[in-house]
Each structure stands twice: as structure tokens, then as C-alpha cells.
């Protein structure tokens, strides 16, 4: 199979500035400013005056995007830059030391003046955009409490005893926001089901299929709006056994269109995680995800091929890209489960804009195994009294119950379905659907080599249990 992606040549970041990120109250000039989640406005904690956020510029026409545009917020991280920064208070002259790996804002311990370090970080860690918290902590506590309560029966006893919503924290996580202008071309074969039937005798029956084979081609211009990718090495690892990072990824997407220009005032009262990857570190990931989006966009015109499509060539030519760095809000609960000499950190995360909730609950494996075993025994016992075709099917319920409950509690395959949920637009679609021949007596339910629903830009496998766990999480 021929799969190619033509990429544009990287250029230097443009000179657009994010400013120093510190805004004073327009009424009294105070720097003690924080976000009022209920109104969505910034509020001066001294005079109580509220004022609007600074909006981002209007979205450009992505179909005209050419070359590569990178804002100042996505410039390469300077590995030599220390996390520890000393600030000099402009009000009283005192020196304040802050660890930039933990926060981008500090307060003078003498005069209480709020200090911003944005214009002093030389390592590209300051984002261009921020999406303010919209869900209050009380709302997040209720969502997490409800999620956990639905999964308490098989939860570890120590977890049920120690669980408390008081441990919930508001966190700004770093992301890269990428807009793409591209041209996609797919060529291959597709099959349309004509007849399904069974062959053989009562003791051994098999399903057979007759299908029409077509030569299929799709070519179109594609724009991708606000493709969102984690920009922290730890959060990018969705397969780690030490942390359930995938549940944080699963609460996407965010309403990126409501981002505002970054101001350090938005961080007050919340923690933040610093970006530690560069554009080149995730360029291939963005490329793969862009092609996945193109592949699924093509599926909208492939309804005829109910036995699937096997693409022989998949080409995506990237004409233009625009990169921005952003802080996006998450309410996070974490619990550390000790497993001998090892430990696993379980997360329950809430999208602080959409209320989307996902989590991993430590499982009492012994209880789950016991109940599943009892179900299996009852099914095997019923085989002596119930006459049904395919007695072997009675062996499945216990195993299926175990897998379904495990998926419901752990949500190991939960992820952001960027290939479907990312905004995109197709233009100038060219289609070829040429009938080739009829195939008869096929034993496979789908065309051999089907790949039109394949996902490559994630480490998680696209499996049946992925879909099951998504449906069961609610």
C-alpha cells in the first residue's frame, strides 16, 4: 500500500507577540485580578470591577492558508533555561523566586502585588491563547461524584474509603492548536453487498457473501480547523501503565473558538502544566492525525460500500499550517493505587467548558472475578436444562461480563475521536466509482484489506471494545 504525505518546509516563527500577560484593573490599576467563572469576565479583587477579556483575532480563511505560520508561543523550548526564575517586584523592589514548572504567576510576599513572569521566560513556555474555566468547582465536584458513584460496586475498598471531592484541582494543560489547508487523494477498491446466505448442513453451516467490486477514487481540498494535540510529553503517553492519561485525552474536544489572548490573570486560583515539547516533536503526529481526518472525511461519500474500502494509495499534500499554543481548562481528581512495589495514578477528569467527564476507577479484581465466575457457573449449569442451538454460547456471558465491567471502570481505550470530532470542510470533491465485477461465495464479512476506518494517529487501537467502553461510560 502506498501512503505518502507531502509536508511544507518549516519557517521561522513570526513575530506576533503575546505581550507580558499581566493586565491591570482599568479602573483602579490593581494587579490582583482573577476570573469570575460565573460571568466569564476578569474581576479586580481590590475594587470588584469586572471587565471583558481580550478576544483573539477573527479566524482567517483556511483555504488560503499557505506555508507554515508559528506564533511566538510555539517557539522551541530552550533546554538551558532554568525553571527557577527570580522576579523583582515593581511596587516595593522585593525579590520573589518562582518555579515556572508549577506556575506562571506569583505574588510578592511583602506588598501582595501580583507579578507576571511571562515577559521573562526565554524558553517558549508562554502560550498564545487561554480558554477560561467555565465550570465551577462545585459543578465539577458533582460530576465527578456522580461518575464515581456509578462505579462503586467493583471499586477497591480503600478507594471508596479515601475518595473525596475535596482533592479536585483546576488545571490548565498545554496544547498545540493546528489549522491545516491540504489536498487529499485516495485510490483503491470498494465492495457493495449484494447477497448474504448460508451454506452447508445443520451440523456445519457457514455464511457466504456476494458483492460487487468497484474501483474507487476520491480527491478533494480539505481544511482542518483547530486540530488539538497535547504538548506535554507525559500527557502524550496514553499507553503508560503508571498513569491513566488517556482519560484526560478523552474529554476533548474543547470549544477552541472561544479562546482569548493569554493573560496570567486567568491562572490565579488554578495550577498549570508547562509545555515541554516542540513543534518538531509532534509534527509527525499532527501529520498522521490530519490524514486520519481526511480518510474519515472521504467516508461521507462512500455510503454505497457497505463492505468497506481498501485504499491502495493515500496521499495528503499539506499546503499550509498554522500553529498556536494554548492553555485549556480541566478539573482533575487523582488517586494513587499501590500495587506491590508499583503504583498507578487514576484520574477522573472534567472538561471545564463542556462538562464532558471521563475517569478510571481502581478495580476490586477479586470481586469482579468472583461475580463473573458465578455467572459462568450458572450459565454452564443451565445447559443441562435449556435446549438451545449453539450451547457454546452459554460459555460467553461470564467472560463478556468481566470484560464489559472492566472497560466501564478502567476506560483504558477511551480517547478523543479527533478523526470525527475535529472541524473540517471538503471542497472540490472529485469522485470515481467504476464497476469492475461481481464476486461470489466470499467468506469474509468485509473486503480484504479494509482500511477506510483505520486510525493511525494514536497509540490506542481502534477496536470493538473501544466503542463499547465509550457507550458504557455514561
Provide the fold topology.
Blueprint: E1 2-6, E2 33-36, E3 41-44, E4 50-51, E5 67-70, E6 84-88, E7 95-99, E8 105-107, E9 114-116, E10 129-130, H1 137-149, H2 157-162, E11 169-200, E12 205-230, H3 233-236, H4 246-250, E13 260-261, E14 271-272, H5 279-298, E15 309-339, E16 342-351, E17 357-359, H6 365-382, H7 396-410, H8 418-421, E18 423-442, H9 464-472
Parallel strand pairs: 1-15, 5-15, 10-15, 11-14
Antiparallel strand pairs: 2-3, 3-4, 6-7, 8-9, 10-13, 11-12, 11-15, 12-18, 15-16, 16-17
Percent helix among the residues?
10-25%
**What would you call the structural class?**
alpha+beta
DSSP summary: helix tally: 9
What is the global morphology?
flat
Sketch the topology as an H/E string, one letter per element.
EEEEEEEEEEHHEEHHEEHEEEHHHEH
Distance between the termini: 39 Å
The unreliable regions are: 10-20, 460-474
The whole-number mean of residue pLDDT values reads 84
- Strand runs, count: 18
Report the sheet-strand fraction: 25-35%
Cα-based radius of gyration, to the nearest Å = 27 Å
Largest sheet: 11 strands, mixed
